[in-house]
Amino acid sequence: MKRILKVLLLPLVLCAMNHASAEVEFKLRQLSPHLHVLYGQGGNIAISVGEDGIYLVDDQFAKLSDGIRAQISKLKPEVPEFVINTHHHGDHTGGNENFANAGSHVIAHKNVYRRLKDKHGEGSKFLPVISFGQDMTLHFNGENAKVWHYANAHTDGDAVIFYERANAVHTGDIFFNLNSLPFVDVDSGGSLDGVIASVANILERIDDKTIVIPGHGPVTNKDGLTEYKALLEHSKSIMLAAIEKHQSLEAVVAAQPLAELKLSYANWLPQERVTKLFYRSLMSSEGND
Fold this sequence. Notes:
beta-lactamase; metal-binding; zinc; 7-stranded mixed sheet
């Protein structure tokens, strides 16, 4: 009986998935002659288009792959040669399998490879076929794209892509440009201090004309990233004061120390969850000093 129900329900599930994909509003914006950003559902996608072909930074969710390909075809009707993952989370890597099956080659930090292998298994098409340690450079479409690993920031596998000729940078989820605080994935090696240090380093490597593509939210510039760094540092100070005063996690959460910032919070990342993650990160950092 269960098997019959599964057969009957499968078309409904597929229909629901297609409907969900159709509801996503994609927005494609040109940033330079060869670089575009695609907004959809999940992490922002950077698209490099030129004589050598196409490559992406991140690929959102699996259900959106057809829609993403349709947007790419507006620029050039080809399969992307590469997909670079900024980290392992599903809203940035969910399309890996679909793009790999179409002929794309996934690139990511070695910790992303390890985490995706733990989730999907050895030999899965979700896994990168090229993994790197500290850095690598992709010489493609007349661009020198420096892919740099930042340790223990949003996760333990974060990659930031610096486009030399376009004077742009894709930060992945080290930067949430949503009038909000970031998701510090402590359980995946992330830390608040790591995010702050990473943002500080990125700022040292860019100039006032650099286009900054965040992991989520609209494209901005160095000033926008500078304001984000100040917010991170302020929120850390608030949390440290709350920890010193209230000590326990429960007491800090009850005090709602971050409320004074009057920020926006997503349903999946409410203020209480951010407070708990920041607490765990800062207490862990204190224990390692």
